Amino acid sequence: MRILGEYYTRTLRVTDTQAIISQGPYRIIRHPGYLGTIFVWIGFALAVGNWIATIILAMLLFGVYGYRIRLEETMLINRFGNEYQEYRKKTWRLIPFIS
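Given the sequence above, the corresponding structure tokens read:
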């Protein structure tokens, strides 16, 4: 949130003055905030000690965030075009070494 600054929102939208952020964790991963949230919830489930709940939660989280990421990346491609496409080539979507 700190790296995105004024561009951080909870809703999917871009502004006329928005730019592609490629510093901090965004140098490596396009959606580090989502990855952090997934880790927090999976960590909580692991702390509770229920493996079945952990697996179900992980599947749900990756499904929901995967859908949101697809929507967000479509929006960013529509807004930034080739610039965002080039950024995508240099970074991983959510998990390093997994496109």
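The chain has a mean pLDDT of 92. Try to locate this feature in the token string yourself.
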